[in-house]
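Hi L., both proteins are below.
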Amino acid sequence: MMDEKAKVLKFIDKNLFITMAEAKQEGISPMVLSRMVAAEKLYSTERGVYTSTLEWLTDPLKKYLPACTLYTDAIISGISTSLPMLRSVISGSLSRRIV
């Protein structure tokens, strides 16, 4: 059986981010996320959003992913119209979060 840290990393490899709600759905305790941040295995990009890399910050569209992940109904001025292009840039499983 896969341990919780491995679950987190597998989820992030597939989706780029994991939210606290998604972690709970996957059976991952909040303490695991906190400990991984303390051990510098994860970054907390926004409250309740975690990732293992910060390379996306330099991408002109991917830098908006934390906001789109947390606020799926949000409209980001000048960016929301680019979301179809963003969907094609990122994995299909992540696009389920972007509406």
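That was the first. Here is the second:
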Amino acid sequence: MKAYGSRNAGILLIMLVIGAIVGGWAGTALSKFYPQYAIFQLTETVGLPPATLDLYVVNLTLGFLLRINLFSILGMAAGYLVYRKM
């Protein structure tokens, strides 16, 4: 039996990301099949838009955007529950 503190935070992060991706796909699919339900189409974008640093020899572009909808949050909750059962 594993001790409570032996679980890895990296596994939790992976489970949350997978849950958010699967939930986001489910929300997008449901919004296409049921366009009359507006709650499936609500999406909020959070993050930093792409920024470019051009140093002539190296061109570096960094950015981070997270599109969150109801099903991505539910997917993250499901990923957390799966992690807790491990």
